Task: structure prediction
Amino acid sequence: MTHSFPLSKLAVCIKQVPVAAAVEFDELRGTIQREGVPSEVSSFDVRALLGALLFRHKEAPDARLAVYTMGPPQAVEALRYCLALGADEAFHLCDRAFAGSDTLATARALSDVLRRQRPDIAFFGRNSTDSETGHVGAQVAELLGWPQITAIQELHLLGPGRVSAVRQIDEGMELVQAELPVIITAAEDFAEERYPSKEEREQVRGRRVVQISLAELDVPSRDRYGFSGSPTMVDGIRVVSEPARRGILLENEDLATQLRIFQEFLASAPKGVESRSQKPLPAPSVGETPDARILVVTEMLGRELRPVSLELLGKAAWLGTTMSAQVEAFVMGPNASSQVPTLAAHGASVAHVMEGRGLVLGTEELTHVLSRLIAQREPRIVVFPSTSASRDVAPRVAARLDAGLTSDCVDLEIDESGTLVQHKAAFGDNAVALIRSRTLPEMATVRPGMLEAAAPDWSRRAAVMRVDPNGLPRARTSILERIVTEDQAVRSLESDETVIGVGMGIGSVSNISVVERLAKHLGAGIGATRKVADAGWLPRQCQVGLSGRAVSPEMYIALGVRGAYEHIVGMRRSGIVIAVNNDPDAMIFDHADLGIVQDCMAFITRLLEPEPLDVAAVQFGR
Ligand SMILES: Cc1cc2nc3c(=O)[nH]c(=O)nc-3n(C[C@H](O)[C@H](O)[C@H](O)COP(=O)(O)OP(=O)(O)OC[C@H]3O[C@@H](n4cnc5c(N)ncnc54)[C@H](O)[C@@H]3O)c2cc1C
Result:
């Protein structure tokens, strides 16, 4: 496909979602009450649209910008909202045949329409705020055969047929270049939030929205769309209840008394805060048939395996026992073969090793390698870590193999019929959807820190199978630079036993160093509210909540955090919550075991100086 320069067409794909804060969860019945709940355009999609408009203004002033959605008749309102924000035209894929589509069936319909419309760039939000999969952009890219750049915060036109973008990754940022046409997914920082004015809404009231039915897509078969064409199905919903909180509020006590009670509270904390104990590895299973294999796609962080890789191996070993399946691991990197003993000790019987000097594969090349490996080995189950890299690759592999994928699982189990049940957090962790695949392999990405690595058995050995690093497709994206944040606390947030949540109440960026001292003292990770990340006081990767990450440490210490719903959903699974806030009515106290009404900097400064209380010793019972 050749591309004109300057650009002539931009597309933005959006989803209408229920307003998360208005959805009611019935913990007893395990149901989600959506009726009568207002809808909105998913917030990352709004950023995608606003960023695309800005990009057009600066770099492609002649391009027409169209918005697309697939959804029920009422989704026309979401498209009108986008017209009010500045889109030129709107297309609505609306047909009963689309009802019940999962992400792959949705991606098929959107890619069918984009193939005909031939935009230069198609923008999506990083993920939707209801189902939070982040699949659709990557799967549309795969189905169209285009490159993708996900979670971007900046985009520039480099010249004929090329763009460069700054994208957010788990460890920092990447500067990436890609050929057009390209799929872009937007992070929050791609554009500032904006709402249409009353006048803008009035102006688009009667504007035409083009309706597209399945028949108009002129596709060879109808059975790849809607519920029946979806490779995954939701089998039930479990509403997650927040642990009962002790609700102690220290309002009138002086600072010294508050510190003493804080210390006593930690010492008498009812929940176990000792290190998570490791289960031993079960005896290895022998995969006698091809479908009795579980493939774990591992990832490296520098020269080490990421901890989540070992968590996945531990889970796979236990699933393998239930279904008599052998665990196989894929490892890639310049020193990949040196990881084989570790993979074996954590449960892998076979290690697929891809090694080469300076070997770094992009999403498309890795999709090719993994799809080929899966076709050869025919595993029943494939699991990936839910990291920025794997969340790019797994949806493409699933789309290429026509397989179901569930992302960001918090657990996996095998039911009595031998099917993999994938537990997926949704609605900002308020609910867990139980999802099954109707296709093989059953594929899932799993959130770091949710599963336990088994205690290693260093007497185990794994057979090594080499994966050929040659014959890869030509790369259409390239990483020009990677800026990795040095902050270890940022990297490990999901697996930290203690997380300090930093809110605007700490007062200024200069106080971050004091928080860091406290974090070091407690061996804690550092999280942030969105406002703190917006202000640049802490990296975006620290953001906890609806549009950030979810954490479930044994202890969460909220400093100067108001307790907005969007923040709470990211930390509500924490074991013990302690909050320090100078407003006795702050919402965070409704979610805390211990609330301390105090200036948070005065509190932590006193905690650290002149003789720091040995909080860590109290906490871990040393
Ligand atoms: C679509 C959408 C998605 C969002 N996603 C997220 C998300 O992922 N994560 C997130 O966190 N937010 C998110 N938000 C934003 C959220 O609604 C809140 O605006 C944000 O969490 C508030 O941050 P804060 O508590 O740091 O700041 P503020 O609301 O400014 O609260 C500061 C708090 O500090 C207290 N305080 C002030 N001074 C002191 C002091 N000296 N000592 C002690 N306490 C003090 C105040 O009493 C107040 O309670 C989202 C919003 C939307 C609309």
